[in-house]
Design brief:
There is one protein chain. The chain is α+β, with helices and mostly antiparallel strands. The protein has helices spanning 20-26, 45-57, 63-74, 91-97, 117-133; strands at 5-6, 15-17, 30-34, 40-44, 77-79, 86-88, 103-108, 111-116. It has a single domain (5-133), classed as Chemotaxis protein chec (3-Layer(aba) Sandwich). It contains five helices and eight strands. A hairpin with a 5-residue loop joins β3 (30-34) and β4 (40-44). The chain starts with a strand and ends in a 10-residue tail after the last helix. Keywords: Cytoplasm, DNA-binding, Repeat, Transcription, Transcription regulation. It holds the Pfam family MraZ.
Amino acid sequence: MFLGTHTPRLDDKGRLFLPAKFRDRMADGLVVTRGQERCLYVFPMAEFVRVTEQMQAAPTTSKAVRDFTRVFLSGASDEVPDKQGRVTIPANLRAYAGLTKDCTVIGAGSRVEVWDTDNWNAYLESTEQGFADQSEEVIPGLL
């Protein structure tokens, strides 16, 4: 499970240091793709395969399924971290997420998310109060 918040920087070649605690799980390969809210999703290869198998089971007669699948998979890039734990973020994905230098990497359970730090801070500011004020269960039976 991926947890926590980290603040690595992109280097001039578009490479990002994966947080040390995430590296072992991604050492054999990972997939970076478009996420929602203009972040990037990073999956260990095995988790990405599981997610795509679920997507393939969805009915392609649904336009929403086709649209989501196209956007999600067309931006996907399989990568292998180098010996220093750096992973290259392709230019099209850096542009999609607005990544420049300062990034925020968060653990999101089965995946990692990569955000432009300013965008992450704005997102967090806009959602924290709703999280605190939640008067009904978002995930039934969780707490």
